[in-house]
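Tutorial handout. Part one gives the primary structure; part two gives the three-dimensional structure as tokens.
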Amino acid sequence: PPVLGHSEGEAFAMCSYCDVGAMYIFNLIVGAGALALPYAFAHAGVIAGSVLLVVLAFFSFVAVTFTVEAMAVANALLRRFPSGRDQPLASDLTVNFASGSTDTEATALLSSDDKDPFEISTRVEMGRMAEMFLPSLGSKLFYACMIIYLYGDLCIYAVAIPKSLQSVTCDYGGNHTDTGGCPSSLGYHGTYYVYLTMVTVLLGPLCFFNVQKTKWLQIGTSVLRWTTFLIMITLATIGIARNKGFSDTDPIPPAADSVPTVRISGMPQLFGTSIYAFMCHHSLPSLVVPIQSKRRLNGMFVVDFVMVLAFYMLLSLTAVFRFPTGDLKDLYTLNFQHFHVKFISYFLALFPVFTLSANFPIIAITLRNNLKTLVQQRNIDIPPLLDKYGFPLLAIVPPIIVAFFTEDVGFLVGFTGSYAGVGIQYITPAMLCLYARRTSIMQRLDAAKNKHASVFRNPLWIYFVCLWAAACVALVTVNHILTGK
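Part two.
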């Protein structure tokens, strides 16, 4: 079943022959979600934000090792099935404990050609692993969680694109209730709605088609993304060194002792945003398979996560020491609208438009396909009209409606990461690893030979990750109730 990561895998395949695997995976982890990180980091405080980022990076890495281990077990199981057999489902992988034998023909010995049964050579997406390892309810919950996450993604994109265009068109010198420099008498909000309508008309129809061979599009947006991040870090560092703003209307850097250190009220939003910023688990099957030498996957991911964490810390710390907390925007690129070199200010403001517009159809098509898969799991015949028009409309209409009622990107990122993101990044990898280990025992796979086994082999780590996820979701939920938002 289609999930996120296919197009990224196509782009990554061209790099599999050289030693740039770690850098490319690093590049895919650091996505547009990082634009919301400085705002959330500042409102949590420098110390609290730094500690939380380190903890979240660690648990995300643990979940990555769980996912890779489950992928290795899935590949071993697929090798056990004779040629031409369908891939195994959880219902096929049961054991008759009374007799000690399996209830399926899937226990055929590995062929002599398979020197390493756990070699990850076949792409088995998360959805397929959920069907192989998890009970029926677990598989359905996974798809539901993935669909909610994809809906959240599209909501964020549907808001961020018109909001960025609005920032270029309108004069931010006034408040957001007057017309400022907006066209005609549309006003600030009117201009946003016009751009949102344009996004719907121009990008919406693309969701009715399939997107293939997108590797050059992905590479192009990656180059654009890195140029943007490096420009923002450089400009923020220069502003801190010079201790003044870009122009008369731009805020000056705050005094060091005025920068917040710990704000408990801001930690739930940073949690949701950080989950979103560290998300890569749904793309791992497409990222790992093209790598030719997989002997040191865990080491490669250690390097990746250390580099990602260092980059996020650099981006966030330069932001909070360059801009007062009250002046930081929920989209960090909007903080550079007053830079005196207009080309750079427009380039930064339009960055979300370029990169998110390229990804919007891909995410929508992925959501459309997952919605269809969820219906097909219930053995329901899908009418051709519903297949052709119903699912695409069901994928794009709700996010557009949400975008008409809110422009708060920070809230959308936090909500998506805090709930659906936890399911994809923590709960699903932990459950896949738990059930994959049980399946290995039932199928008499020699787990000791699994070179891709997680370094966190103690079963307590699985439950620890789940408890951490549950505690964080509870914290976020209580915060929503107490603050009323």
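Part three, for discussion. Confidence is low (pLDDT under 50) at residues 1-19, 82-87, 91-114, 172-178. Residues 46-80 form the longest helix (35 residues).
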